User: What shape does this take?
Amino acid sequence: MIYGGKKIFAGLFIFVVLLISPFLANIGKADAQPNPSLNTPTIDALAAKQCVGSAQFMRTYHMQLLNEWRDQALRHGEYTYVNSQGQKFTISLENTCLKCHSNEQQFCNTCHTYVGVTPYCWECHQKGATQ
Amino acid sequence: MKIERREFLKLGAAVAVGLGGGMTLDVLTKAKPAAAETTTDAVGTKVSSKALHAKRWAMVIDASKFKTEADFRRVEEACVKAHNIPDFGPDSKHQIKWTWEEPFTRTFYGVDDPYLPEAIKKENFPVMCNHCENPPCVRVCPTQATFKRPDGIVGMDYHRCIGCRFCMAACPFGARSFNFVDPRPHIKDINPDFPTRTKGVVEKCNFCMERLDQGLMPVCVEASNGAMFFGDLDDPTSDVRKILDTHYAIRRKPELGTGPSVFYLVGGGGAGA
Assistant: This one.
């Protein structure tokens, strides 16, 4: 038995409990998944509710796609994007993406807040510009 | 039923042709709607099929048509409105300028000969980024945020700009401005179709590349009432080449070898075209 063992082990126990207290506090509670809302007047009016890519692709790769779009439009002057279905889209954050997704709070921010990212798109680009 | 070897091969060939033909037809029918879809895209946005292209965009400014203050204001205000340029007042150190007005001695530095006509020396000239053939700003940019496009336009990618201002030091024409503060609250009349800039980036005239891609001429050219001309310097039949072929035009600081794409008709005569 080490000298003053009781105090040491009690102290250690309190320390560990404090350390894992956030996990203890959330035990048994369901993880609140982000639930972005897709519904905007423009999307509701579409015959086929389909983005430029599949929902899975857009969810995973929208940031890479936006980077590619930026370089294509700005550096190469190519303003037409052809998706895997052969459909054509105008490359523009303001006039293509945000025309449908005009609900920034429910659409963009829901997931961005959940994963703790703060993209700085809106410092220059204007939200829902065409609305 | 027993099939001879020869019969089997014939049958196989026929099936192969049938399948191949079927696939070809399938491709043709699929290609048709795609070919017809040139004016609107899948969500109804116009696909710009009439984008203007050039080997090297250039501008000719007929200085004799910039007589009154109103001529300058009209052009500047059209640019300010189209590109969300903030207004900090004329004497502010935060001033952002895409196109502005300079006196003769500062426009054509080094050619202010004492025996030039007084009238020319008193004239003012509209100036902007010269979209140089050999742009020093592009050479010094450490992040390639500023770049020269294949059509000769010197563009800015504000996403990549780190605000080091090397380009401002390199530009011999002072065509670049730095955003010392957030410009958004200072934009008088915001144009929702064009982005603003943010604090900490350098900005300048973009030769209206966003309008060229929609088949439109730059706003200053449209607002100038025929005092500015825009076209392909590489095309002998373009507006700018026709004027340059018949008129004596000068460029700013040609001795520096940057090869500006903005030409000036100075001293009357004008283009008349």
Strands of chain B lie at 57-62, 99-103, 124-128, 146-148, 154-156, 177-178, 202-203, 228-232, 249-250, 262-265. Chain B has two domains: 1-34, 57-265. Chain B touches chain A at residues 30, 34, 37-38, 41-43, 45-48, 51, 53, 147, 149-151, 155, 157-159, 182, 190, 192-193, 195-199, 209, 212-213 (CB under 8 Å). The two ends of chain B are 86 Å apart (CA to CA).
